[in-house]
Write a structure and sequence with these properties.
- 27% of the residues lie in helices and 24% in strands.
- By secondary structure, the protein is of the alpha/beta class.
- Strand 2 and strand 3 form a beta hairpin.
């Protein structure tokens, strides 16, 4: 399992690490930057075969365009706007995005919810859902 946070969101790094610990009960440490993203990888365990990508659509699209063929994970969970634009990658991977009914992934102030970053509804749903990681993703995101 990996979690990619775009460089423009570097100021959220510690808050995202806390979020990931709360959600998965695993510590995540930053790795060597790749394609403009900061990879966060779990300590001591590989975790499930899932890649999470968080960033603006253009950044995520650029990363996927260059790396889609070499991404080892079979499941990719994208927290970004314009989820339909990632449909072209669904032939190779299981792609999950926030809300397919809206073009934008609305963000809200995370502070009232205990987070020091702007958070999407899908991330809040993931945080509050129960079950296995796969079940939680399926309840919070929509598969393309």
């Amino acid at each position: 399992m990996r979690y990619l946070l775009h460089e423009t969101q570097r100021g959220e790094l510690q808050a995202r690490q806390q979020f990931l610990f709360d959600v998965f009960r695993m510590y995540f440490l930053p790795g060597k930057p790749e394609g403009g993203f900061i990879p966060l990888v779990p300590v001591g365990t590989v975790g499930p075969d899932i890649l999470f990508i968080t960033g603006h659509t253009g950044y995520v699209e650029s990363y996927l365009r260059s790396a889609a063929k070499i991404i080892p994970e079979k499941t990719v969970v994208i927290t970004s706007c314009m989820g339909q634009s990632f449909k072209k990658y669904a032939a190779r991977k299981e792609i999950y995005v926030p809300d397919l009914k809206q073009p934008l992934c609305l963000l809200r102030n995370g502070r009232p919810y205990g987070f020091d970053f702007e958070i999407s509804n899908a991330e809040l749903d993931l945080y509050n859902s129960a079950g296995t990681i796969t079940e939680r993703i399926q309840s919070a995101y929509q598969r393309l």
